[in-house]
Amino acid sequence: MRAEHLRQALSCRGVRRQTVTVRWSVGAKLAAVTVVIVVVVTGLVTLEIAGRERETLQRSKAASASVTSDLLAVSLVAPVDFADQDAIELELSHLSANRDVLWGAVFVPGATVATATMRRADAAGVPIAAPETPNGGRWTDRSVELARPIVRADGKHLGTVVIAFDLAPELAAFAESRRRLLSRSLLVAAVTAALLVIASRRQIVRPILRLRDAASRIERGERDVRVELESSDELGTLGRVFDQMSGAIVERETRLAEATSNLRELFDHMRQGILVFGPDGVIEPTASRQAAALFGDVAGRSIRDVLYPSADTNGVELQAFDEWMRLAFEVPADAWTEVGSLAPPGVRLGRRHVNLEFEPIEKDGRTAKLMLLALDATDVHRLEEAVRVQEEEHARRIRAMRRLVAGGGQVFVAFLSGARERLARCRALLGESNDPLAAATLEEVLRHAHTVKGEASAFDLAPVVEAAHAFEDEVVKLRARSTEAPRVLSAVDRARWLGRIDDVANALDRARELFVEASPIGPSILDQITVHRADLERLHALTSGLEATELGSVAGRLTARPFGETCALLVDKVPTWAGTLGKSARLEVEGREELVPRALASVLPGVLGHLVRNAVVHGLEVEAERTQANKPGVGVVYARCVVRGDDVEIEVEDDGRGIDLPELGRRSGRTVIDPNALLSGGLSSAGETTHLAGRGIGLSAVRSSLSTVGYTVSLDSEPGQGTCVVVRRAPPPAT
Amino acid sequence: MSISKIPTSKGRILVIDDSEVLLSRVKSALGAAGYDVIATTQTVGTARHLQGCDLVVVDFHMPGFDGKSVLGSLRGAMRGGTDAPPLFYLYTNDESATRDWSHHGFDGVFTRKGDDRALVEQVDAAFRMRRMRALANRTK
Description:
Chain A is an alpha+beta fold and 735 residues long.
């Protein structure tokens, strides 16, 4: 009960029973084993030797006892034969002189009680038993009992004499001998063990301890550790192998350190910041220098907090990232391509924009970790933004110019011309000398600058306005110095003023270039004037039949229209048409300033509309198909006007798939070997009818329309390369 | 954007807001980012635009009605519905609306209203989440 109580009490106090493990050193173990072995061996040897000594002592005792017994047996023959009790006892009494005899007795045959006995004084209590055989011996712990027959000369057995010889002296001598042997053996064992312990300590334990210490030093990171055992035994060999191993470790560590250093160098010099994190989002300690520059100290931080430091939990970007993290570590690694495409492509950290790229580190078919490669793309984004703004500004100006062109480009041309004249006048007024400027001169310069600025504002030409305003400011400042005295313009001021005028002129040049770019008829827009259509019609009628004369030629040019005018709307239409069909396309206009004769110009908008639309619908492939055919993703349709002698040829060419004549034949149910068969109508290269094409009447209508004004159309197509449609004047009828 | 950069549409978005100016900017920003955008100030008849629409962006405070009622009417018009219903996102700077978007029945909220670039980034994230959910369903 008490023990149980104590156990429970200990258990309640949290005391745990501890197993004490005694650590034996190799030396102690060797010593213990040695002592045990030596003691055991010594003991066995001692016992063996003692046993043999005892046997020898007993044998010699038995021999002497046997002689005594034999003599007594002979001397007893007569007394026993004559049953002379006194003589018998006398003979027995002689035994008392022998100190080795414990007792002696004579037995007649068949008797169990001795006829006569003799006992030593200290053997009074020792029992005397009849012998089992008349001639033999029996050993007891204390004595040896020898029986000898008493035999008459004629061989008659008269009785048996038994003498018990005391073994005490022999046993004492044996015990002394054994004790001496044992003590000496133990001494030898102790000395042997001590010698063995000393030897083992020197030869085994110390080298092993040196090896252990060396291994510990290597474990602690020490380099070039040597044990340098000089013995030639197995431990010496082990020591040399250890030293070689230590050297190899040093060499390998050196190489590894160099490789690590090189990698680190590479790692740190990459433009991308690199860091690694696991499914818990915790960033590992190893991150590149660039990562630290981008995100600060990231080791141990959450990737979520690093990428979205100020995002609230409602933020859709943070939600998307959280979902993506779960998905990235859940799905099998072979689904990474799709998972990777769903990663956030970038984050904004304050004013910086960082592009992100994630790479998986796989283990057992799963994404075990993710490596983030982060690139500071702030400058790129800023540049893209600047380009975008510039493009938007350019587009805005182009739109403004197109409105200007549509609303009467000649006004703008007149402005350009007038502004240039005003600037030239300003330069002339400033002159080349440093003469004082008259107030009137200054006022005139100011008026020109102000007028240019005002007119430029009307045309929404911000750069011209700014440049004119800067020039105007200069003039106003000089005028403000004094209202009376003539103003002197220093050489420096004059040069600066002329520079301002040049700025305005340059801004005007850029506006002119933009105007020409926005114009469907190119530079010809600068040379156009507005006339009444009715006057042209009248002129055309008056010069009818005079085409071969110069007058007819001039009248023809006056009534002709620039080719670009016809294509103006198509430039915007082509991307739209293509977009509705899942394609990408643009229209390139060449020869937009070339003049198209009046008759052809009257039908050309419709004709070009058909041809360009056909090219987009039938000719151009979708982006994927074009990419597969090693073509740019955006298809191109060319509309060209080429001057041929006194006339022009119109070409509409695309870089699409060309006309598939076998397919065309299959659909029409007849053999088609010439693409011009499409001009006859009823054939369409489109698979289905849409609002854009497919009825097979487009080219037929084109041919019909052109024929009314004396022109013809032909097709040329190269499979895989594209199709070209050419409009040219019909040959004169054969006479 | 130049013609040579015509992208294939990344998705169709319906934007409902009472501000023409904001719609114009949103349309321009999302269009430049490659989205096909339908922008409207009207709520009547808007449901016809839902067909093929991937995302609906709704302003919260509009004269006479709020984003919640617009959402209700659009969801009502979808009943019997489409295979892949669009996501409905609130677009607001209103703190309480931002906090309670889920309570109002929206799939999420776009904040930082007025920052066009932030809107594009948020719309991109919403589309990514839509694709992630589809991928997660496939891999289950």
